[in-house]
Each structure stands twice: as C-alpha cells, then as structure tokens.
C-alpha cells in the first residue's frame, strides 16, 4: 500500500480523495468511496437544509464505518445560505474533516478547529493557497487548469502548479484536477503532493447517483470535450462541450453581454435536472474535466480505486530500474 502523510493524518488506506461535487456528493457515492479506503466528501449544499445534511451524514454512517468528510462551498448567492447552521450540523454530527472551497474559510476555522475538525481548503493558485495557510487551514487541495468547475483565472496546469505549491507551502498539498488514473497518482506524488483528488473519474462509476447517459458520455468523450464558460465575467468555469455550453460561449462573446443573458442556460438546477437526473445530454450545462480523455470504462468505486492504486504501485516500483 502507498502510505503518505495524508493517509496517516486522515486515517484512510489510500491517498485518494473524492472531493465535493454538487448533486453527486451523497451517501450513495461517498459511502462506497469510504469503504474502498479513500476519503470522500458529502456536499453540504446538495442538501436543502442543515437538517437534511444531518440526515445524510447519518445515512452515510449506516453504509460505512470508515472516515468520510463534508464539503462546504462558500460562495455569494442570491438567496442567503445559513452557513453557520450547516457548520453547526457538521460539528454536531462528529465529522472530523471538512473540505472548504470558494471564498475564504477564515470565519469558519475557529469553530471547526475548536471541535477538532481538520480543514482542507481548495485553491486554484499558490497565492490563494498561501493566504489560506496563513489563516490556519490544515491542508491545501491545489486545483490545476485541467479541472472541472472553476480553475481560476491564471490558466496554470497541474504539472506546474503542484510543485510550485509544494515549494512554498509548509502544510500538505493534495493534487486536484487532471487526475483519473494510477499514472496521475504516481506523477502527483513525484511532484510532491501527498494525495490526489478525483472528481470526474468518480462520476463514471456504477454508484454515482446520475443518469447512465452521463456516464456513457464521459467514456465516449475525449480530452477536447470541454469548453470554458463565464470567462468574460471573470468567473471562468470548465464544463462539458455540448449545445448549451457552446451557446453560452457564443452569447457571452457578444458586445455588451452580461451574465443575465446566459443565466437561464447556465442554471445549475437545469443541468442537474435535465442532464444528471434525466439524461438529456444536450439540454443543460454540466461539469466534467479534461480527464474524460483518460476514462475508458464504468466500474464500481472499489474497482476504480483498486486499479488506480495498483497502477501507481507498478509505476513507482518500476522507476528505480531507470536509474543507472
């Protein structure tokens, strides 16, 4: 087995995370991730209320006795989110590790640390990672340009970003974005990371709570099957290339375009309902990374994790033979 400071500090068998994914981070996926020896994160805001989150944590515990965490994404919203209540639900449930993303986690750190909760913060640049370190987070998940979701505005890929972060940070660094295989895990460890975060790869598993059409589309797609949206609004996001996302790009490039012009097309609720739930692949914007080009089958979570670890171990074991 591959042992790192991550596996030691977080009490898991493998240096693999399944980070928070809106609409997917439920017990159906996260319990199998935990049972397979990795660290998965329920997505707090996938649940409509803090009370519903408490129930989802309990449901996950009914399915696994191994560690898992909760993702708390902190973003400006039209309707205020009761973050304090979600945070309280996480603490009261006895969760020991939280993944934060979006805005600064600083307001939440005193309560989390006071309850003995470790905090992993997702960052898309070294400067933001350093800021989070100064505020007291326990680890950084550094998100390269290849990732699904919001890669920031610097366009720095993981091959550069990971070692740049490792060089300047004194806390553990988790590699995120562009990783879906044992080759990626071995490379990330060679670059100085202590673990990897995979999202798109876990979408293409039998347990992922999404329509089979989505899983099949990920397998069919290649590394060119994404597009960047919202770039004109300085909120760049990587999503799957389809009719809706290409329409969003076209409208956004018009003179004087505002986000209101694409809001209906870009609706997260539309993507989750039409695509993720109903399998209408061209009728909503949905999220996946460039790693689609590395995903060639749909397996169980256990099979995916076992294969990633086996391939990484084989590569790591072979590398010393190259030194003369």
From TrEMBL:
Name of the protein described by the UniProt record: Nitronate monooxygenase
Matches recorded under InterPro entries: Aldolase_TIM, NMO
CDD domains xrefs: NPD_like
Molecular-function GO terms, alphabetical: nitronate monooxygenase activity
Record's keyword terms, sorted: Flavoprotein, FMN, Monooxygenase, Oxidoreductase
Taxonomic placement: Bacteria, Bacillati, Actinomycetota, Actinomycetes, Propionibacteriales
Pfam family, one: NMO
The keyword Oxidoreductase is assigned to this record: yes
Top-level taxon: Bacteria
UniProt-listed PANTHER family: 2-NITROPROPANE DIOXYGENASE, 2-NITROPROPANE DIOXYGENASE-LIKE PROTEIN
């Amino acid at each position: 087995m591959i042992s790192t400071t991550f596996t030691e500090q977080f009490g898991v068998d493998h240096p693999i995370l399944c980070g928070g994914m809106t609409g997917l981070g439920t017990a159906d996926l996260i319990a199998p991730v935990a049972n397979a020896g990795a660290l998965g994160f329920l997505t707090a805001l996938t649940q409509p209320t803090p009370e519903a989150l408490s129930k989802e944590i309990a449901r996950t515990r009914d399915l696994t006795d191994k560690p898992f965490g909760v993702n708390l994404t902190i973003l400006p919203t039209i309707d205020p989110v009761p973050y304090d209540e979600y945070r309280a639900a996480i603490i009261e449930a006895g969760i020991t590790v939280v993944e934060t993303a979006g805005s600064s986690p600083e307001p939440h750190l005193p309560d989390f640390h006071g309850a003995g909760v470790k905090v992993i913060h997702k960052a898309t640049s070294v400067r933001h990672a350093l800021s989070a370190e100064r505020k007291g987070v326990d680890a950084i998940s550094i998100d390269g340009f290849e990732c699904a979701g919001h890669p920031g505005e610097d366009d720095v890929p993981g091959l550069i970003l990971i070692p740049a972060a490792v060089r300047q940070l004194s806390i553990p660094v988790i590699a995120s974005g562009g990783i879906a295989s044992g080759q990626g895990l071995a490379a990330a460890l060679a670059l100085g990371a202590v673990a990897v975060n995979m999202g798109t790869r876990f979408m293409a598993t039998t347990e992922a709570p999404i329509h089979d059409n989505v899983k099949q589309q990920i397998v069919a797609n290649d590394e060119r099957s994404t597009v960047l949206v919202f770039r004109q609004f300085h909120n760049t996001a990587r999503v799957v290339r389809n009719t809706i996302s290409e329409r969003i790009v076209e409208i956004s490039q018009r003179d004087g375009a505002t986000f209101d012009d694409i809001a209906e097309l870009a609706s997260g609720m539309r993507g989750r309902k039409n695509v993720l739930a109903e399998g209408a692949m061209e009728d909503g914007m949905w999220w996946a990374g460039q790693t689609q080009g590395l995903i060639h089958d749909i397996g169980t979570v256990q099979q995916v994790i076992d294969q990633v670890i086996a391939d990484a171990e084989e590569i790591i074991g072979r590398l010393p033979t190259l030194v003369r």
